[in-house]
Task: inverse folding
């Protein structure tokens, strides 16, 4: 396995093609659960776990189930089924094995099914023709990029709560503008080649 | 039942329950593809088609689906419809398909569609559900076109690919790049808040 390719994928998915700021995936939880750092850590952990496992499982399903039987056109249906049942399974598994973690992630787990970052990374992995290890690494790195963006915005919003924001901008409006400024900062990475 | 009810079911999606600006649903395509008015409109129409057909289909089969597995059943219906739209666009509109790219398959996880299936189509008849889907879908398409239009004017000096200004205008390219999406959205939200405040007075 070529380590430098993997390094490129990791840096690329976290910074250059950040899922939130460059690809616009997973925005609903990004705006929804970025009010507090604590809850955004929970969401980030849950998403990281599901995205890594979902990348691996959907890759196996695509290459060993859909391709041999020429069923590639069922990709969307198959992937969403895999992700939905995976989330359900992960929820039950965590509930049985670690009640504390379940309490921490609790509400966020079911929400992940409709997080487009998960389906997005699965489809992207296939489009980029990654092999199994690259797919898993990419899923993990993309989720770390997502978590990073979520934590940064949560930190900013916690501060904004105490500052004097013009009345019309209070609430989500200022959060969008802050996210825009963060995105400008992330544009500094674009065009970087590894 | 009077005609007024039908009209209200249809019209509420465009303003009062506008999915994008009021309910903040389906944000990823809203910000991801609106670098021009045409892209926004195309994405909006693709979503409208899926939403309308899923609302009609689900309201037709709502009495057959067992209550416990209704969500997976809805997702299957929606995923099938999205596959149809995905393949149709790939075949007949290859240029647009390339621009919208990943966001066409991602219509599956657009919360607007599952949301309407669960909260409206599963409880109402075919005609009302169709009107609801049409209204919400048009509200979504309209918002995407407006957002795309603003970004295109500011970032490219054109609207629907027609240049609006002479050479004097220096477009602010940042508005067609990702940060512009967030900032424009923030200012639209602020503008709507201001309007609401003025109405109250």
Result:
């Amino acid at each position: 396995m070529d380590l430098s390719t993997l390094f490129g994928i990791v840096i690329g998915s976290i910074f250059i093609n950040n899922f939130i700021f460059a690809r616009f995936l997973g925005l609903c939880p990004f705006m929804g659960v970025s009010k507090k750092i604590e809850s955004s850590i929970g969401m980030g952990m849950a998403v990281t776990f599901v995205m890594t496992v979902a990348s691996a499982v959907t890759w196996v399903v695509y290459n060993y189930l859909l391709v041999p039987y020429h069923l590639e056109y069922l990709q969307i249906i198959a992937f969403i089924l895999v992700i939905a049942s995976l989330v359900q399974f992960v929820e039950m598994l965590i509930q049985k094995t670690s009640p504390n973690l379940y309490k921490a992630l609790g509400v966020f787990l079911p929400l992940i099914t409709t997080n487009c970052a998960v389906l997005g990374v699965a489809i992207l992995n296939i489009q980029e023709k990654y092999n199994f290890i690259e797919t898993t690494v990419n899923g993990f790195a993309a989720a770390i990029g997502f978590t990073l963006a979520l934590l940064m915005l949560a930190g900013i919003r916690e501060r904004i709560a105490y500052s004097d924001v013009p009345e019309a901008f209070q609430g989500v409006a200022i959060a969008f503008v802050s996210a825009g400024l963060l995105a400008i900062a992330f544009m500094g990475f674009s065009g970087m080649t590894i | 039942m009077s005609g007024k009810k039908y009209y209200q079911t249809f019209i509420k999606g465009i303003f009062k329950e506008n999915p994008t600006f009021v309910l903040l649903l389906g944000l990823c395509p809203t910000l991801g593809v609106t670098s021009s008015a045409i892209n926004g409109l195309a994405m909006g129409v693709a979503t409208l088609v899926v939403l309308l057909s899923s609302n009609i289909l689900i309201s037709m089969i709502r009495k057959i689906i067992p209550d416990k597995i209704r969500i997976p059943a809805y997702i299957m219906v929606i995923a099938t419809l999205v596959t149809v739209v995905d393949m149709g666009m790939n075949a007949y509109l290859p240029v647009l398909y390339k621009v919208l790219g990943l966001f066409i398959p991602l219509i599956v996880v657009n919360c607007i569609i599952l949301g309407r299936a669960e909260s409206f189509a599963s409880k109402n008849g075919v005609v009302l559900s169709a009107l609801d889907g049409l209204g919400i879908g048009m509200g979504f398409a309209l918002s995407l076109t407006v957002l795309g239009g603003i970004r295109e004017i500011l970032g490219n000096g054109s609207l629907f690919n027609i240049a609006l200004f002479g050479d004097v205008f220096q477009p602010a390219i940042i508005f067609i790049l990702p940060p512009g999406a967030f900032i424009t959205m923030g200012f639209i939200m602020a503008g709507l808040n201001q309007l609401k405040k003025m109405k109250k007075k």
Notes: The beta strands of chain B are 158-159, 162-163.
